[in-house]
Amino acid sequence: MSSAAAPKKHQKTQSTYAFDTTATTVAASQMRNALNKLADTVEDEEKQQRFENEMDSFFSLFRRYLTEKASGTTLDWEKIRSPSADEVVAYSKLPELENKNNLSKLAVLKLNGGLGTSMGCVGPKSVIEVRDGNTFLDLSVRQIEHLNRHYDADVPLLLMNSFNTDKDTEKIIKKYQGHRIRVKTFNQSRFPRIYKDSLLPVPESYDDSLESWYPPGHGDLFESLVQSGELDALLAQGREILFVSNGDNLGATVDTKILDHMIETGAEYIMELTDKTRADVKGGTLINYEGQVRLLEIAQVPKEHVEEFKSIKKFKYFNTNNLWINLRAIKELVESNAIEAEIIPNQKTISKGSSDINVLQLETAVGAAIRHFKGAHGVVVPRSRFLPVKTCSDLLLVKSDLFYLESGALKLDPTRDGFANPLIKLGSHFKKVSGFQSRIPHMPKILELDHLTITGNVTLGRGVTLKGTVIIVCNDGEKIDIPNGSILENVVVTGNLTILEH
To answer: Which of 69, 352, 390, 431 is catalytic?
Structure first.
């Protein structure tokens, strides 16, 4: 019985390889010359040394990008397996060890490089007010301060800033000086954007405008931690484990159960995963690839397999970017240049002079480095440990009565236990925090809400309750004011509604 042969993958011919290899060599040497010229524009000797180190790191990233592009290195979809039982562990199965001494081995790091521009705010995203007058940063400080008081510990907080957030953050953290917490900051790298067509750097000098540079994603954490001297300082204090999370994830609090598990198992890297829902289909997932634990991101998935990647059945969990990493392992890997996280080429359009130009920025993600660490595995945690605020729809959720604040941590109201958070979609009128605050000055009660969609010029009054599925659609040029004290349950509101207060 004959069987149809599998279609052959298109392989590059020898002549294509030769051409690509030559083009790679030329592009690399042109880049090296351009970076040397950039370094010559730095007058201060100490700054020049630092800048040269940074450009060396950028150059090795760039060269790796060219090589991978030329060889067409992609994952073979057929070799992707689900992780084995010991590569993904359920949080509920972790033993209760309760070793309080382990906190002396811990440091906490928040990724603080992002601006609040996507939510219409100026300055670092971490200073957006999220709950009861507290910013993201205030809540992080309060959580760790409570931990230090409760356990009589001295867990330090590190902030990895970018050149975009550094100056503002330095001013803001002065207010925590009287608190029981040590806050340290360091900067991640500043890499040059490159022209998409010529693959040459956009900046012409070291102090060229901010538009010419970019922070290269949080995969740069390892290198920056070592270069800044902060890693050695932590090791000198007896710290062994770094708990890393996004600055805007309000669910990422220190969990002693995971810390104890990491120290007990000797794992060098733990990634917190959580169950995938339809809202998270694009999130990166852990896989086993040729016997190795890896993070698979949607950008790496061939087009014909994207729907399979989004499937909740095949890939059940996704990466929360709450990571527990061994500091000595980081030091060894960085010093031996062993970390090669997958490169994410990010295309942007920037204005230079009077014209718009297409640029590339080469980024890496901290989660992608998992394959370089011994004993690395995932722990499937409750959804409550993943509470990111990326949009004003998320902001409505965390400001609502679904949660209450306890020692800087957001806790879910017990009546919602076991239920998924409501799906909230606010339209473009609510994109910026200012628009959101003026239209929803008082948070509605949403304890019994499943789904909320609001589009158009809509304002909510005081004491509004939303239950079940609520859809409010206001047409262009019209206005809907939901009156004070309204109770909306399983309704669609459309048209025009303005209530005059008497």
So the answer is: 390
Q: Determine how β-strand 458-460 pairs with β-strand 480-482.
A: parallel
Residue 388 carries which DSSP code? Answer: B
pLDDT tens readout for residues 252-276: 999 999 999 999 999 999 999 999 8
Per the annotation, the verdict on 171 as an active-site residue is no
The boundaries of every CATH 2.160.10.10 domain in the chain are 392-494
Q: Is the dihedral of CA 150, 154, 160, 161 positive or negative?
A: positive
The arithmetic mean of pLDDT across residues 50-70, rounded, is: 92
In CATH, the number for domain 392-494 is 2.160.10.10
Residue whose C-alpha is closest to residue 243's, from 272, 220, 215, 223: 272
State the average pLDDT over residues 478-493.
Answer: 94
Question: What percent of the chain lies above the pLDDT cut of 90?
Answer: 72
- 73: pLDDT strictly greater than 90: no
Q: Tell me how far apart the alpha carbons of residues 294 and 82 are, in angstroms, rounded to a whole number.
A: 10
Q: In 395-494, which ranges are E strands? A: 403-406, 409-412, 423-426, 449-455, 458-460, 465-473, 480-482, 487-494
Q: Is residue 408 annotated as involved in ligand binding? A: no
Backbone angles phi, psi at 342, to 5 degrees: -55, 140
Task: Classify domain 77-385 at the CATH topology level.
Answer: Spore Coat Polysaccharide Biosynthesis Protein SpsA; Chain A (3.90.550)
Burial of 87 (C-beta count, 10 Å sphere; 0-12/13-18/19+): middle
Beta strands in 297-427 (DSSP E): 317-326, 343-352, 355-364, 377-380, 403-406, 409-412, 423-426
Q: Measured in Å, how far apart are the chain's first and last C-alpha atoms?
A: 85
CA 104 to chain centroid, in Å, comes to 26
Tell me whether residue 390 is annotated as binding.
yes
Q: What's the whole-number average pLDDT of the chain?
A: 90
Predicted TM-score of the model (pTM): 0.91
Domain with CATH 3.90.550.10 in the chain: 77-385
Q: 218 among the known binding-site residues? A: yes
